[in-house]
């Protein structure tokens, strides 16, 4: 029996599976100056309930061109410890795109709950 794409994304760093490719595409689709939560990225990738999978994939990411800094916790906070270099880098990258970051939390915008909300302005 073959491994599932979800399991492959966890256990095959460096090997792009279908699930991994969908997650990476969802992250790349976040426009500059906007953010999305880990769970929203998972939903956009067709993997609802897999927020931890997104976080784990990002933790092992080596692609500096991937806009990883646009992915936050569902409450709009940066997931890194406030005194870490990663926290400082993510804050700086977001601010460079015009995102308001105060005390590690993005202000003035919330990640859209659904694609409908983004396109039509209301939830499903």
Task: Outline the structure in words.
With 124 residues, the protein is mostly helical. It has one domain: Orthogonal Bundle (Arc Repressor Mutant, subunit A). The protein is 42% helix and 8% strand. The protein has 6 helices and 4 strands, in the order H-H-E-H-H-E-H-E-E-H. The strands form 2 sheets. The protein has a two-stranded parallel ribbon with strand order 1-2. Strand 3 and strand 4 form a beta hairpin. Helix 3 packs across helix 4. The longest helix has 12 residues. The termini are far apart. The N terminus is likely disordered.
Strand content: 5-15%
Major beta sheet, specifics? 2 strands, parallel
> At CATH's second level, what is the architecture?
Orthogonal Bundle
Low-confidence spans: pLDDT under 50, at least 5 residues?
1-12
Structural class assignment: mainly alpha
Into how many domains do the coordinates divide? 1
Using the alpha-carbon principal axes, give the shape: globular
How are helices and strands ordered from N to C?
HHEHHEHEEH
The level-1 CATH class: Mainly Alpha
| N-C termini distance | 37 Å
Any idea of the CATH topology?
Arc Repressor Mutant, subunit A
Number of helices: 6
> What would you report as the Rg, rounded to the nearest angstrom?
15 Å
CATH H level, superfamily name: Winged helix-like DNA-binding domain superfamily/Winged helix DNA-binding domain
Instruction: Write down how many β-strands occur, each being a DSSP E stretch of 2 or more residues.
Output: 4
**Percentage of residues assigned to helices:** 40-55%
């Amino acid at each position: 029996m073959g491994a599932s794409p979800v399991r492959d994304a966890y256990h095959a760093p460096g090997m792009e599976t279908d699930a991994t490719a969908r997650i990476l595409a969802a992250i790349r689709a976040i426009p500059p100056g906007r953010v999305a939560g880990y769970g929203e990225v998972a939903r956009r990738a067709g993997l609802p309930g897999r927020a931890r999978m997104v976080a784990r994939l990002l933790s092992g990411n080596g692609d500096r061109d991937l806009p990883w800094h646009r992915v936050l916790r569902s409450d709009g906070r940066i997931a890194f410890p406030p005194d870490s270099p990663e926290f400082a880098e993510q804050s700086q990258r977001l601010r460079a795109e015009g995102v308001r970051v105060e005390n590690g939390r993005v202000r003035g915008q919330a990640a859209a709950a659904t694609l409908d909300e983004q396109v039509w302005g209301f939830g499903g």
